[in-house]
Amino acid sequence: xxxxxxxxxxxxxxxxxxxxxxxxxxxxxxxxxxxxxxxxxxxxxxxxxxxxxxxxxxxxxxxxxxxxxxxxxxxxxxxxxxxxxxxxxxxxxxxxxxxxxxxxxxxxxxxxxxxxxxxxxxxxxxxxxxxxxxxxxxxxxxxxxxxxxxxxxxxxxxxxxxxxxxxxxxxxxxxxxxxxxxxxxxxxxxxxxxxxxxxxxx
Amino acid sequence: xxxxxxxxxxxxxxxxxxxxxxxxxxxxxxxxxxxxxxxxxxxxxxxxxxxxxxxxxxxxxxxxxxxxxxxxxxxxxxxxxxxxxxxxxxxxxxxxxxxxxxxxxxxxxxxxxxxxxxxxxxxxxxxxxxxxxxxxxxxxxxxxxxxxxxxxxxxxxxxxxxxxxxxxxxxxxxxxxxxxxxxxxxxxxxxxxxxxxxxx
Lengths: 202, 200
Fold this sequence. Notes:
The structure holds two protein chains of two kinds. By secondary structure, chain A is mainly alpha-helical. Chain A has helices at residues 3-8, 13-22, 28-36, 38-55, 66-73, 80-90, 92-115, 121-150, 152-160, 165-191, 194-201. In chain A, α7 (92-115) runs parallel beside α10 (165-191) and α8 (121-150) packs antiparallel against α10. Chain A is elongated. Chain A starts with a helix and ends with a helix. Chain B is 68% helix and 0% strand. The longest helix of chain B is centred in the last third of the chain and has 24 residues, at 173-196. Chain B is globular. Chain A binds chain B through residues 13-14, 46-47, 49-51, 53-63, 66-67, 69-71, 73-80, 82, and chain B through 15-20, 23-24, 27-28, 31-33, 35-36, 39-40, 45, 48-49, 52-53, 56-57, 60-61, 63-64, 130, 133-134, 137-138, 152-153, 156-157, 177, 181, 184, 187-188, 191-192, 195.
């Protein structure tokens, strides 16, 4: 490589950065140019000094309590535990009814299992489904009558708005009807004699 | 695993699920870098705190929009940078002395906006020289254009890659390189006297 080739082209900004900050990383001809060219060597040295000076800049700190002030203004999405707690608090009546229904179902299933151990679950399910279907139809008719009595438009408007006294009462009435329906199924099941159920099962 | 051992991305996920301790850990992890950049942009401690605080609040309140393919810190810096640039656009450009912002008319305001370095009493010569260089450097950085200043601080103080800087400042990679190259040139020229002694 001639002296002219070595001196020919100065280093590009990227090459100066590579030489100043990475130490190595230059191709052989570029390293040779750097050794021979005072201008490029000066650029590399100057960049190295600037980079070193910048790296010694102190990190500045905000005043004490910065994190507290930030956290006081932050509104994080609620965790699932908080969401559950909030939902239960806001819909206490519904939650209580749901919990009671769950207890009744589990308890009823337990009693049933003890009283009629011979009955197969599939037969029981088929019979219960038939009874529930009748009750559902009766409940639907009852709800329709209530809706007509209360005024359908008023009922729909109440459901469309935020929770108001009317919509809360309508909600409670629905839950009450469903609860009564479920209880009546259990009562009828408990009053039915095993032979009758056995006939149903056949 | 303690919060201090978790990665930024893990903490961001926890914060998105409502974990306040994770959010606080992220604030404590990044309050200094964010404040340092913002302060060096606006040269006003009170304003820098307000802008940094707003950046954190906006970051956390919009966590559901955080794209995990980016580094959390890049997203945070991007929000802080945009807030600061918006503020600077509304105000006139700030090129200030290390002794305080130009609108600091009272002694209290000058103290609040000055870059505070250590007392020079009973310090070895080398330490004084280092402090003088630091003062000179702060002054030279303050004299840079705001976008040059941001780019060079992110590169050399925060150690960000060119790609991350392009992402944070929302500019092409080539522009980042140009900004940093020009900023280095200006700093080199500004610090030439400090290194070589004043020109005769």
